[in-house]
Design brief:
Elements: H1 4-39, H2 43-63, H3 72-84, H4 90-93, E1 104-107, E2 110-113, H5 128-152, E3 162-168, H6 172-196, E4 202-209, E5 223-225, H7 231-237, H8 244-255, E6 264-268, E7 272-274, E8 288-291, H9 301-304, E9 320-328, H10 329-333, H11 336-348, H12 350-356, H13 360-371, E10 380-381, E11 405-407, E12 412-414, E13 428-430, H14 454-469, H15 473-476, H16 483-501
Parallel strand pairs: 3-4, 3-6, 4-5, 8-10
Antiparallel strand pairs: 1-2, 6-9, 7-11, 8-9, 12-13
Length: about 525
């Protein structure tokens, strides 16, 4: 009887041991089944099974913002390439060129080959993730093509026209620019009416003067006078004069919107010179605008989110400013208050003020368009709306179409042989900022004979024509100083504007025109302050 407990314990141990053996046997069977299934896979299928996740991860890194960010202009060119592309592969959709190898992915100036070699040496990638990425990218390209096709459409509704509104303050600087701009508006419209009759889409013109008092040019140019910023908001602006613009348009919309017969407006600026009569691209639902490479909503999403209480997706924010813009006046009326309020709020936000710099009011318009109404207002982006010499050298836009106006915001420098000298003051030099206190002289010298930049030559020719026709120019023109003297004054004036705006130019890509520092020769800079 004394040995009975030992037998019971042994029996219990045997039962436990038997249970463990059963578990181990079952686990072994599962492993063997798995091995058998893998052995039964074809080589290419086995490769796909082993590499699908790796391939998917690499492709996701390339498509979800983890690759090096190229310059905005290169991205714009990539979009143009996509518009004309057919039969795109994953490689070309991610930046490579068709025919350069199925897995070529362009990253900046480097090309990386993504080859997923199978164990049977076929080199085929049967990854389901890769196929899904390609399908998604093909859908995006198709959507881009559709968007481009819509952007190319013009509004030919009988009787519809746009009213040009050019906002500005007082003083010689904006005075001579606005007079030249209106001169070429009139000539362009007259030619348009001669050629198209009532189908010409160019309507009336308003100079929106936000000085609060009339000036000497009320009879020469149709003008509406509105108030400048009140003292408390002027203190917020702290010398950032561009805040006057949304406040001026807010007043115009409240008081004068119903006084014009046109249903659409064209928001312009004094430094715009028409070349051809632009068609009416805008519709009641969709405005049109010029895309600016230095407006980058995705880059500044963390800032924009602070002004986006609705949580609108960042890809719904257009890379545009408020000028040039064509928009239905009723749609504009729904945006303008938000545009003004955001301009003030951004100026009061230290990080936004610093990062957006002098283009912060352009960001304010883009944010307002995306957030003010029930749904984001998306703009057609039209490259041929304008040229920006000297970086545009012909009279055609980057898409090969004839351009409709010149925006002369940049400095222009050429050596005696007519070669462009970005980053260095040339023997021949033009910059509107040199003529802040005086009109530029009549018959301003044309670029050297070897200059092939038709946009620059056309700009100077058109300014000279207006200067020789408009009354009172001679009494207000300045002398033509040496380039060095011009440069000194421009740099000093630009420094003063920067101090007044309380803004550092870090992160903007440049500090101004071709004669200023902060950007590499040959790299298109951000223009200087207006």
């Amino acid at each position: 009887m004394a040995r009975l407990p030992d037998r019971a314990a042994a029996a219990a141990r045997g039962r436990r041991s038997g249970g463990s053996h059963v578990k181990m046997t079952l686990m072994l069977l599962v492993v063997l089944a798995g091995v058998a299934s893998i052995v039964n896979l074809a080589p290419s299928a086995l490769h796909a099974e082993l590499h699908a996740r790796t391939a998917g991860a690499e492709l996701r890194q390339l498509t979800e913002g983890q690759r090096p960010r190229t310059s905005a202009e290169k991205r714009l060119q990539e979009e143009l390439d996509l518009e004309a592309a057919d039969g795109l592969t994953v490689g070309s959709l991610l930046g490579g060129r068709e025919g350069a190898g199925g897995g070529a992915v362009a990253q900046g100036t480097r090309t990386f080959e993504h080859t997923f070699e199978t164990i049977d040496g076929t080199g085929a990638d049967t990854s389901a993730d890769a196929a899904e990425v390609e399908k998604r990218r093909e859908q995006e390209v198709a959507a881009k093509k559709q968007d481009t096709a819509q952007a190319n459409e013009v509004n030919t509704t009988p009787g519809e026209k746009y009213h040009v509104i050019c906002s500005l303050g007082s003083g010689a600087y904006t005075e001579w620019q606005s007079r030249v701009s209106y001169y070429w508006y009139k000539k362009t419209r007259e030619k348009c009416i001669t050629e198209q009759g009532d189908a010409c889409p160019m309507g009336g013109y308003t100079r929106l003067l936000h000085s609060g008092k009339p000036d000497d040019w009320m009879d020469e140019i149709p003008t509406v006078v509105v108030d400048p910023l009140p003292p408390d908001l002027a203190a917020v602006a702290a010398g950032y004069v561009v805040l006057e613009r949304p406040y001026a348009f807010k007043q115009w919309a409240e008081k004068y919107l119903d006084t014009i017969p046109e249903n659409y407006i064209w928001m312009g600026e004094p430094d715009h010179v028409f070349l051809l009569a632009p068609p009416l691209w805008a519709t009641p639902e969709r405005p049109a605008a010029f895309p600016f490479f230095y407006i980058e909503p995705k880059r500044f999403k963390h800032i924009i989110d602070r002004f986006n209480p609705k949580g609108v997706a960042i890809d719904q924010f257009d890379a545009i400013g408020n000028s040039p813009v064509q928009i239905h006046k009723r749609q504009f009326a729904g945006i303008v208050d938000k545009w003004f309020n955001l301009s003030i709020a951004i100026k009061q936000d230290p990080e936004a003020d610093k990062e957006f710099g002098w283009v912060q009011e352009m960001y304010a318009y883009s944010i307002a368009a995306a957030t003010a109404l029930d749904a984001p207002v998306r703009h057609k982006t039209i490259l041929e709306i304008q040229l920006q010499p000297p970086w545009d050298a012909s009279l055609k836009a980057q898409n090969g179409r004839d351009a409709f106006q010149i925006h002369f915001t940049y400095g222009n420098d050429f050596d005696p042989a007519g070669q462009f000298t970005p980053g260095k003051v040339g023997a021949w030099h033009w910059d509107k900022r040199d003529w802040t206190w005086k009109y530029p002289p009549r018959n301003f010298p044309m670029p050297p004979e070897g200059c092939t930049n038709e946009a620059v030559k056309t700009l100077i020719s058109r300014i000279n024509e207006a200067a020789n026709v408009l009354p009172g120019w001679a009494e207000r023109e300045g002398a033509l100083p040496a380039p060095a003297a011009q440069t000194t004054r421009r740099l000093q004036a630009h420094a003063r504007r920067g101090e007044q705006a309380g803004r550092s130019s870090s992160g903007s890509g440049s500090s101004g025109s071709g004669s200023e520092v902060g950007w590499r020769p040959g790299e298109r800079p951000l223009p200087a302050a207006p």
